[in-house]
Design a protein that fits this description.
single chain; about 575 residues; alpha+beta; 3 domains; 29 helices
Length: about 575
């Protein structure tokens, strides 16, 4: 066992997923094994769409996630760590330069777009220019749900990686979308998914983006495009495995990766049409002054400046660019129409006629030259207009090269027809053959099915929030604070949280509180040879300075010796 990797499955920081990419799908599988999302199927909102097509269910899921989860970008949620310590920790896997070039917390600033945006300042990373940086973590569905116990949160919450993993698991459980048809896309600053459904759907934080939405030119859609337009894709994760920008070896099925690349590029490409020009004008409002719309007004032509029609669009359910345009035009006041065409403006009906007759292809230089010639009399810099329109209609994702050494994992066949218990039993049979599955059980944290060493290593080394809060307090103060917390875990059964989750959510089972106290005794009081003796309901923590007792509902029975290295006795 690689103890560093397996302990990372417990803490799941973004950096740990970057170094150990098989953890990403481990989180998805842990969420699928969790009872939490399966309970969603009993909710009225999902009962109402039973028997509907997966796409319809996905639309309902999107609204549910919007209602139930906030997007959390509080960098201090999981405390602060030392950058140099993390770099040293991961030195056997990636060089300092590779990490700094691809991870936002370690110095990544992105390409020109992100320099212009000042992305580090945008995300609050500019505050962390020294050795101390946020411990940016990813959460399971239970940890996301538990945000409601934190101050200033009314619902669950999670950052982009947590939301991406939640979406895949929920789309599988609630929407009956096959895991084979979903791909996770991780960039240095973002995480999203591509679902091979109805021409393609991208999940983006809490929202989803269909192909039509990708090209609609709205502010929300343009923000959704930023990562794929401006960042390298570091990892693509799939049920068959992963491919990583920096690693020579990949575990994803090669045919599946090729299929994904083709499907994604098709989703990110659109040919020129009147509808797409209208979308572009919505995005680049400065060009609206060169266009006008012609409408039949009781047998006579009426001409309308395009910017006026876009203004009407703001307060309407109808749109300039689709088959509702005529209804939008009906909402325009008659006084806004002119009986005569405007000088220096292209008529959209004539533009539509030109595009249809000339078969303009965005990748065809000759036809694009004809298009520029058509635009030149009106638009001062038609070439610039075409360049910007092309950039709007074509996104070329910077994906990991397919030129890798492929080592396929043992195939996992998890069907949407399987029930939760069946899936857990099946995955359990795959643990010895597929490390990604084995890691999923550590993410899942059922301590009756996992070695305690990774859990305890993570607890003693990577829980800065609990340590910071306990500084200056006596051992008895800390114990009493733990005893005052609700004696209930955020996890069901024999699954256990880490110390920072106990402190952040102000609750924990006796086993979890004992591990939290051990972490504080170890780090703040240099306690040695700590023994946690778990005898089902009774938990005893003993060390040379004393003994503390806790009550547990976990039903676990084992004896833990906390020293370096941590081990089970």
């Amino acid at each position: 066992m690689d103890l560093e990797k397996y302990s990372s499955a417990i803490t799941l920081s973004d950096m740990e997923i970057f170094v150990f990419p098989d953890l990403m799908y481990g989180l998805v599988l842990a969420n699928i094994m969790s009872p939490a999302i399966w309970k969603w199927r009993e909710r009225d909102c999902f009962k109402k769409v039973e028997g509907k097509m997966p796409y319809r269910k996905l639309m309902r899921l999107k609204q549910f996630i919007m209602d139930e989860y906030e997007f959390n970008l509080d960098l201090n949620t999981w405390g602060l760590i030392h950058k140099d310590k993390e770099l040293k920790r991961f030195a056997p896997y990636l060089s300092k330069e590779e990490i700094e070039d691809a991870n936002a917390l370690f110095g990544y600033t992105g390409d020109k777009y992100y320099f212009d945006l000042d992305i580090r300042r945008h995300f609050g990373l500019d505050k962390y220019n020294c050795d101390i940086i946020p411990y940016w973590k990813t959460e399971t569905v239970e940890a996301m749900d538990a945000f409601k116990y934190k101050k200033r949160y009314k619902t669950g919450a999670g950052e982009c990686v947590s939301l991406a993993a939640l979406y895949v698991a929920a789309a599988f459980i609630v929407c009956n979308i096959a895991l084979e048809d979903m791909y996770m896309i991780l960039t240095p600053l973002h995480s999203q998914n591509f679902l091979d459904l109805n021409g393609g759907v991208i999940t983006n934080n809490r929202r989803i983006v269909t192909k039509n939405m990708w090209f609609n030119g709205s502010e929300i859609s343009m923000k959704a495009q930023r990562a794929l337009k401006n960042e390298k894709v570091t990892i693509v994760s799939h049920i068959s495995g992963y491919i990583h920008q920096l690693y020579e070896e990949a575990t994803i099925n090669r045919k599946r990766y090729d299929l994904f690349v083709n499907k994604l590029k098709t989703y990110l490409f659109e040919e020129i049409s009147l509808s797409q020009v209208a979308n572009f004008l919505r995005f680049k409002g400065g060009y609206q002054k060169y266009f006008q719309i012609c409408k039949d007004c009781h047998g006579a032509p009426g001409f309308l400046k395009s910017e006026i029609l876009f203004h009407y669009e703001h307060g309407s359910k109808f749109r300039v660019n689709d088959n509702t345009r005529e209804k939008l035009l009906d909402e325009v006041s008659p006084e806004d129409f002119s009986l005569y065409p405007y000088e220096g403006r292209i008529r959209c009906d004539e533009l539509d006629d030109f595009l249809n007759k000339n078969s303009i292809g965005i990748r065809d230089k000759k036809s694009m030259a004809r298009f520029i010639e058509f635009l030149n009399p009106v638009i001062p810099s038609a070439e610039k207009f075409i360049d910007e329109l092309s950039d709007f209609l074509i996104t070329c994702p910077k994906l990991p090269s397919a030129d890798k050494k492929y080592h396929n994992l043992d195939k996992i066949s998890v069907s949407t027809h399987m029930q939760r218990d069946e899936i857990i039993s099946y995955l359990n049979t795959k643990r010895s053959e597929n490390e990604m599955v084995d890691l999923a059980f550590y993410v899942y944290r059922d301590m009756s099915m996992c070695d305690w060493a990774p859990f305890l290593k993570a607890a003693m080394e990577r829980n800065p929030v609990s340590i910071e809060i306990a500084k200056g307090k006596t051992q008895d103060d800390i114990y009493n604070r733990l005893m005052d917390m609700d004696n209930v875990s955020i996890y069901d059964g024999k699954r256990c949280v880490q110390p920072d989750e106990v402190v952040n959510y102000n609750r924990g089972d006796g086993v979890e509180k004992a591990v939290t106290l051990a972490n504080l005794l170890y780090n703040l009081f240099s306690a040695e040879n700590i023994i946690i003796d778990i005898k089902k309901e009774n938990v005893f923590l003993k060390y040379h300075g004393g003994e503390y007792n806790f009550f547990s509902n976990k039903g676990l029975e084992c004896k833990l010796h906390i020293a370096l290295p941590v081990k089970t006795v």
